[in-house]
Amino acid sequence: MWAPKSISAVVIVAVVALVGGWFLARSLLTDDERTTARTGILAEPFRDLQGRSKTVGEWHVGLTLVNFWATWCSPCRDEIPLFMTTLERYRDQGFRVVGVAIDDVEAVNRFRDEFLINYPLLILEENVNAVMKRYGDGMAILPYSVLVDANGDIISRKLGAYQNDELEAVITAALRH
To answer: Is position 154 within any domain?
Structure first.
C-alpha cells in the first residue's frame, strides 16, 4: 500500500518531469522550426465550416494550441472536452484553441453541434500529409497538437492525446514565460 508521502513524492516527480520535458523539447526546436509558426501555421490557409478561407492567426492572441484531429479518431474525441475546459480556465490569460479537422465538413458540423465545442474549427482537405509534415507530424498521425507562443514561435509539439496533468503543465509553464 502506498503511503501519502510516497504518493505526494510521485506526483511531484511527475510534474517536474513534465515541465522539464517541455523545456527540453523547446530547447531542441531549431530557430527555423520556431519561426515556422510565424510564417507557416499562423498563416496556413484552411477552410472554416462555411467554406471560407481562414488562418489560425485570426484567433492567435497569446498562447494558441492548434489541434489536428478527426471525428472518427477516438483519442481525438477523448481530448476535446479537456481542450474545452482548459480554454475556459485560461482564456483570460490569452490562451486559445483552434481545431483543424482532417475530415469532411458535414461530419465536423454534426460533431460540433453535438458536443457544443467552444473553440474555432477549421478543415484541412488538401495536401494533408505535406501540411502536417511541415509542422512536425511526418506520418500525419492523429491527434497532433502544436503550441504557439505569444511571439508566434512553435514551442511544443505533441503526437497523441493530451492527458489533463500534461496539458496543464505545458500551458502553465508557457504562460509563465
So the answer is: yes
Give the per-residue pLDDT at 27: 41
Nearest-angstrom CA–CA distance, 6 and 77: 34
What's the CA gap between 4 and 12, in Å, rounded?
A: 12
Structurally, the chain folds into a number of domains equal to 1
Task: State how far the Cα of 120 lies from the Cα of 142, in Å rounded to an integer.
Answer: 18
The answer for residues whose C-beta is within 8 angstroms of residue 58's C-beta and 6 or more apart is none
Give the closest residue to 75 by CA, choosing from 157, 155, 159: 159
Distance from C-alpha of 128 to C-alpha of 27, rounded to nearest angstrom: 27
* Predicted confidence (pLDDT) per residue in 145-162, tens digit: 999 998 888 999 999 999
The reply to whether 13 falls in a domain is no
Give the 3-state secondary structure of residue 46: strand
User: How far is the C-alpha of 102 from the C-alpha of 105, rounded, in Å?
Assistant: 9
CA–CA separation, 7 and 119 (whole Å): 35
Does residue 168 belong to any structural domain of this protein? Answer: no
